Amino acid sequence: MSTSYAIAGVREKLGKSAQLLRLLTKNPAEFIDRIAAVCDGRLQWLYGKPPAYSSVSTTADGIEVLDRKLKINGMPFLSETNFERFESRMACIQQLLPHDAPMGRFHNGDHCLARVVYVLARATRPERIVETGVCYGVTTGYLLRALHENGSGHLHSIDLPPLGENADSFVGSLVPEELKNRWTLYRGSSRRLLSGIVQKQRNIQMFVHDSLHTRANMRREFATVWPFMSSGSVLVSDDIEGNSAFAELISMPGIKYSAVLASDKKKALVGVALKS
Does residue 4 surpass a pLDDT of 80? Predict the structure, then answer.
């Protein structure tokens, strides 16, 4: 690593530390949420090794399994002309993100998660979807496209962007403007906001977790939203491989069906649970 890159890295860390300290007086609640998130991550080792899931090898195979198990016939949705145009558009605009954008692109939902939630939203036609974690809005865009094609439904998304210059302005920036009429974005942590949202909306038909992937946060989100999910509703969680939270969820009574899908392009697993 060159000296200039090392100096730039130190400056970035110092800048984020300064931003965090300013929150202590400007927004104490957010300061606490960010510190709690750091602690959640540091304490992951206390819970031992994550479980080994038997997973489907590809996204296409996984969706075919969901089709059979849930009897939804979702695969045809992926070959519709409107969807193919939308997917090409999303791929193109992702390439237009500036190189110095404040959030790593790896935070975006990948091809597997995006297609799975699109198919499930098209097939089950949920009226109320709650999502945690937005980043630039890839998965959000797919969900909103599904609602647009369905002609009904609303998406409630929660996101607390990482510290960085103008990070807030980039949250959901890839979501096409014409899809935003079915979308409400809440800025903050799921730790603070999720409970109030689900209590107000109630009868949640679909929940998508893609925020902080720690056992504590995932367990908290699942426990918060599950009582407000109606029979036959679907819970989808990205990056379940890092801890036991999803395994603990599907071991509970009230699970009609569950599946684990392997991402095509990264070492990540997507969990799907259907409430009985």
Answer: no
Give the whole-angstrom CA distance, residue 145 versus residue 78.
Answer: 12
213's tokens: 């992937």
The lowest-confidence range among 51-65, 101-115, 211-225 is 101-115
183/90 Cα distance (integer angstroms): 17
- Contact between residue 262 and residue 269 where contact means Cβ atoms under 8 Å apart: yes
Residue with tokens 């304490």, as numbered in its chain: 43
Burial (CB count within 10 angstroms: exposed 0-12, middle 13-18, buried 19+), residue 21: exposed
Question: Is residue 224 within 8 Å of 195, Cβ to Cβ?
Answer: yes
Contact between 242 and 213 (Cβ < 8 Å): yes
Residue 271's closest CA among 209, 219, 206?
209
- pTM reported for the whole predicted model: 0.91
- Confirm or reject CATH 3.40.50.150 for domain 49-275, answering yes or no: yes
Q: Helix, strand, or coil here: 236?
A: strand
Q: What is the pLDDT of residues 61-100, one digit of tens each?
A: 999 999 998 889 999 999 999 999 999 999 999 888 888 7
